[in-house]
Amino acid sequence: MAKRELQEVNAGSMADIAFLLLIFFLMTTTMDSDTGLARTLPPIVPEDEPPPPPIKERNVFAVLLNSQNQLLVEGEPMDISELKDAAKEFIENPERKDNLPEFKEIEVPLLGTVEVSKGVISLQSDRGTEYQAYLMVQNELARAYNELRQEFARKKFGKDYKDLDEDEMKAVRMVYPQKISEAEPKNVGGK
After folding, report:
1. Chain centre distance of CA 107
2. What 8-state DSSP symbol labels residue 185?
3. Number of neighbouring beta carbons within 10 Å of residue 189
4. DSSP state of 29
5. Which of 84, 101, 166, 181 is least buried, going by the fewest C-beta atoms within 10 A?
6. How many angstroms separate the CA atoms of 130 and 65, rounded?
7. In b/e form, how buried is each residue of 97-121, taking b as 16+ CB within 10 angstroms?
8. Which residue numbers in the chain have pLDDT < 50?
9. Could you report the per-residue pLDDT of 171-187, keeping only the tens digit for each?
10. What was the pLDDT predicted at 37?
11. How far apart are CA 84 and CA 131, in angstroms?
């Protein structure tokens, strides 16, 4: 019997095919982009500048996030779903309660003299806090400001905040400036 010869596979174009497949998968695959928070850091304070005046306790909305991702707001436990509404009530102080922020009058272009809250939200987290929990708290606080701006834009200008021109947006941001003070993370409680 005659022995059959094995046929050879032409592998000359295998490298080309592998390269084309690599390019295809690189071009069609989506990569998760890093998430983060866009923040503008305050400028460096000159050494000869006097310290700012102290903030009254009633003007500070204390939000603490512990290592167990539990929220403590104004000394009371709170669910994340309640944070936005509590922050809105603090910032707006619609009934002008004595335990909520004071107001000051400022001159705002397009609006004239307007009362603006002196309230500041103080956020402090624990070193062991999960990043996702921290982002959720940040998002809820930002939602509070965004909703207040939206409501004010509809009331004063009759349109959504996103539809305002630049001057109108600036005026609304002057009435509801986003004042969130973040302290350096430390151990604030929890196990």
Report:
1. 27
2. P
3. 12
4. -
5. 166
6. 10
7. eeebbeeeeeebeebeebeebebbb
8. 188, 190-191
9. 999 999 998 888 777 66
10. 63
11. 19
11-48 tens-digit pLDDT: 778 888 888 899 988 888 876 666 666 666 667 878 88
State the pTM of this model: 0.71
**101 is written with which tokens?**
């922020």
Q: Is 74 helix (H, G, I), strand (E, B) or coil?
A: coil
Q: What is the pLDDT of residue 43?
A: 75
What is residue 30's DSSP assignment? -
Cβ atoms 64, 124 nearer than 8 A? yes
Residue closest to 125 by CA, chosen among 116, 112, 111, 136: 136
Structure tokens at 81: 């779903």
What number of helices (H) and strands (E) belong to the chain?
4, 7
List of long-range contacts for 182-187, beta carbons under 8 Å, 24+ apart: 182/123, 182/124, 183/122, 183/123, 183/124, 185/124, 185/125, 185/126, 185/127, 185/129, 186/124, 186/126, 186/127, 187/67, 187/126, 187/127, 187/128
The stretches of the chain forming alpha helices (DSSP H) are 14-28, 80-92, 131-157, 166-175
The phi and psi torsions of 185 (rounded to 5 degrees) equal -60, 145
CB 190 within 8 A of CB 166: no
CA distances from 113 to 83, 88, 96, 108, 154 (A): 30, 22, 18, 6, 18
Task: Quote the radius of gyration of the chain (alpha carbons, Å).
Answer: 27
Phi-psi region of 107 (alpha: psi -120 to 50; beta: other; left: phi over 0): beta
